[in-house]
Amino acid sequence: MRLDTATSMEISSTLVHTAPRDAATVIILRDSPCGLEVFMVRRHGLSDVLGGAYVFPGGKLDSSDLQLVAELDQEADALHGALGEPELAVETARGLYVAALREAFEECGVLFAQDAAHRHSLQLAAHINSGLPFNQVLIDLELRLQTRALLPWSRWITPRMPSIASKRFDTRFFVAALPAHQIASHDNVETTESVWLAPRLALQQYWEGQIEMAPPQIMTLAHLSRFADVAGVLHSARQTLPKRVAPEPFDDGGERVICYPGDPRHSLSTPAMPGPTRLRWRNQRFEPEQGFDALFF
C-alpha cells in the first residue's frame, strides 16, 4: 500500500521573487557487478517540493546545522575552500556539510561518522525518535561526522521562474561512497520508496514513464553515466571545484525550455557539465531536443 498520492509534474510560469534558500544534497554511490549505481529516494507525493519525484537525499540548511562544530573531522576553513565560493560565509559552508550529512541520515539512514556501523545508525535513530535533536545525539554517542566522505560536485540555483516548483534553492550537490556496513533505505515519512540504479538505467526508467525526475537529477545522472565506478567519480570531484549551474528557462512554441551554460540562449557560453545544453518540456517530461541518446553525447 502506498503511503502517498503521486501527482504528475505541471509547468508553472509563476515568478518567485524571494532569494534562494541554501540547501544540500548527497549523491550516494556504490559499485555493483553491473557497474556504478546511485541511490535515489521518492519524495512523498504530498510534499510541497517535487512531490512524487525521485531525488537524491537532501534538504534545506537549518539553523542547527550552523551550530555543530566539535563533532566534525575538518576545520571550517577547509570546508569553505572546497566549495569554491569565496563570497560564502565560512560558517555557512560548514553548515552545508552538516546539512548534507544530517539529511543523508534522516532520509535514508546512512550515517557518515567515524567508525560507524549499522548499529550506530539504529542507536542514533532511536535517540532522535525519543525527541533528542541530531546534534545532541552525536555528542551523547560520541560520534564525529565525516565531512571528508563528502566531495562537492555541483551547485544548482533555482531560477526565478522555477517551472516545476514554488520555491527557490541554492543547492550544493555532494558525491559520496556508501560507507561500509551502512544500509540505505527510505524513511517512510519524507520519502516513501528508494532504489539503487545505474545512472543510465534511471534515465531509461524516467524516459519510459516509470519514475518522475526533475531537471537537476536528469542532468546529474547524465553526467554520472560517463563513469564506470565510484573511484572515477570521486577522482573527478577532487580535480576541480564544483561547477555553478544556474538554469535559464524560456518559452518556445508553447513549450518550456530550460537551457544551461554553453547553450546559445544562456548568458554563459562555457558548458558547466557534459550532455545537452537544454531540456524541453514535451510528452509530459523534460527531454533533450535530439532525443534520449543526446543525454550521453
Short description:
This protein is an alpha+beta fold. Helices cover 25% and strands 24% of the residues. The protein has seven helices and twelve strands.
Describe this structure in words.
The chain is an alpha+beta fold. The chain has one domain (21-296): Nucleoside Triphosphate Pyrophosphohydrolase (Alpha-Beta Complex), CATH 3.90.79. The chain has seven helices and twelve strands. It has helices at residues 76-83, 90-108, 118-129, 134-140, 199-207, 215-224, 230-239; strands at 21-32, 35-43, 54-55, 58-60, 151-157, 169-177, 191-197, 243-245, 248-252, 255-259, 278-282, 285-287. The strands form two sheets. Strands 1, 2, 3, 4, 5, 6, 7 and 8 form an eight-stranded mixed sheet that branches. Helix 1 packs across helix 2 and helix 5 packs across helix 6. The N and C termini lie far apart (40 Å). Residues 1-7 have low confidence and may be disordered.
Per DSSP E runs of 2 or more residues, the count of β-strands stands at 12
CATH class: Alpha Beta
User: What is the ordering of alpha helices and beta strands?
Assistant: EEEEHHHHEEEHHHEEEEE
Mean pLDDT: 90
Any idea what the shape is?
A: globular
**Kindly, what is the distance between the CA atoms of the first and last residues, rounded to a whole number of angstroms?**
40 Å
Total helices: the number is 7
Task: State the CATH topology.
Answer: Nucleoside Triphosphate Pyrophosphohydrolase
Provide the domain count: 1
Q: Any guess at the CATH architecture?
A: Alpha-Beta Complex
Summarize the biggest pleated sheet. Answer: 8 strands, mixed
Gyration radius, to the nearest Å? 19 Å
| Full CATH superfamily name | Nucleoside Triphosphate Pyrophosphohydrolase
Counting helices, strands and paired strands, the structural category is alpha+beta
Q: Segments where pLDDT lies below 50 for 5+ residues?
A: 1-7
Strand coverage percent: 15-25%
Portion in helices:
25-40%
